[in-house]
Design brief:
Number of domains: 1
CATH architecture: Orthogonal Bundle
Shape: elongated
Distance between the termini: 46 Å
Keywords: DNA-binding, Transcription, Transcription regulation
Organism: Paractinoplanes globisporus
Protein name: ArsR/SmtB family transcription factor
Helix content: 40-55%
Strand content: 5-15%
CATH topology: Arc Repressor Mutant, subunit A
InterPro entries: ArsR-like_HTH, HTH_ArsR_DNA-bd_dom, HTH_MetalResp_TranReg, WH-like_DNA-bd_sf, WH_DNA-bd_sf
Length: about 110
């Protein structure tokens, strides 16, 4: 993480801290959605949803594409890299532990065994 400023990570984490913003990201993680469809998924005002979208865009978590008068939003998956890198620092051996747990629960037969 030495080549990425901590401010990027902090900005992404602050944006992810709000449950409404996380729900917006869930809505757009697989396909672009127009702002109106995103807003319709909430009991919040259109203005409040727009503010949340603005925070997510500023953090780099959302891409915006204009199609005529509509604005379409999608998750920018690569922007989650700083968070993945931060978590990897705290779980450097997570895959090794998972591998060991799976191998313990489901041992492979040794050579010559069927």
């Amino acid at each position: 993480m030495a080549d990425r400023p901590d401010t990027d990570t902090d900005t992404v984490l602050r944006a992810l801290a709000d449950p409404h913003r996380r729900q917006i990201l869930r809505l757009v993680q697989h396909a672009e959605l127009p702002a109106g469809r995103i807003a319709a998924s909430f009991t919040l005002t259109q203005q409040a949803v727009s503010q949340h979208i603005g925070v997510l865009k500023q953090a780099g978590l959302l891409t915006e594409r204009r199609e005529g008068a509509r604005r379409l939003y999608a998750l920018h998956h690569e922007s989650l890299a700083p968070v993945r890198e931060l978590l990897a620092e705290f779980w450097p051996d997570a895959l090794s532990r998972l591998k060991k747990a799976v191998e313990t629960a489901h041992p492979r037969p040794g050579k010559g065994q069927a």
